[in-house]
Amino acid sequence: MHAPRTRVQRRPVHGVLLLDKPLGLSSNDALQKAKWLLRAEKAGHTGTLDPLATGVLPLCFGAATKFSQLQLDAPKIYEAVALLGVTTTTGDAEGDVVQRCDVELAQLTPERLAAVQQQFTGPISQVPPMHSALKKDGKALYEYARAGVTVEREARDVVIHALKLTLTQTDQAQTAIKIVVNCSKGTYIRTLGEDIGAALGCGAHLTFLRRIDTGGIGVERCVTLAQLEAMPESERLASLEAPESLLAQHMRVTLDSDNTARFLSGVRRRGNWPDASAVAVFGENPPALLGVGHIVGGELVPDRLLSPLEIQQISESTPHLQASGTLEKL
User: Is 256 a catalytic residue?
Assistant: First the structure.
């Protein structure tokens, strides 16, 4: 007989875990593992990474889930390696080989790479891959693909803010292209790798993919699941950054206690503020994040608010989370 599973006692946890997602786990698998380790009640991730991809995956807990869309919309930076001369069904190393083609090294001049690099910089159009989570008629494209069905996909416009292509070799001394790309949300790096291979005349598929930055959050700030698991449980909350760490690009407004109560009730406040599309609003005493809003014509309009219970739980947590992610005893 199997031993009965220990029931995890969940608790309210509010903050952001900057995770360096490991190879082989889906984003949701990584989220569930972190949620279990933190014994958190509510959690969500900020955009999927393929199981074959590693790197920055901010995980939001509790009140921070209200701001996860900001990271979904943020630009991303990836490092990838595309093996030249081989195309696959999935655009990466998991798929079956579709075609092999000789790679003429003499043709891969710096000038040729520079021209292809220029071709894929700026606004471009991509046809989403069949092996993706994009839905058609309520069903993910990868579900159609697994059933051997190919469906029509409309091309999507994305923006490549910066692109660098460098000739390299794989561990097996095969010719490959290293790709470093800063791109808008919705960009498929597997598709970019395939399209670059096609432009070079030999085809390609990704053998390596790592997200190194999302919305200004670099991989050097991240922790791994292994590091989190190795910590004593009492120290795991120290890995979290406060919910307002997602609001670094927002203008900051602090309200006195009277205006705090009214703002939390959803009432607009007037003040001598410049117009701003993204505002992080804090209370004065105690200093606490109240939510986000925008300012138009001197009027502060609430957009997403924390509940009084969430604010109380965050303020009562000891050790207390700070926006920097460090801990400070109350």
Answer: no
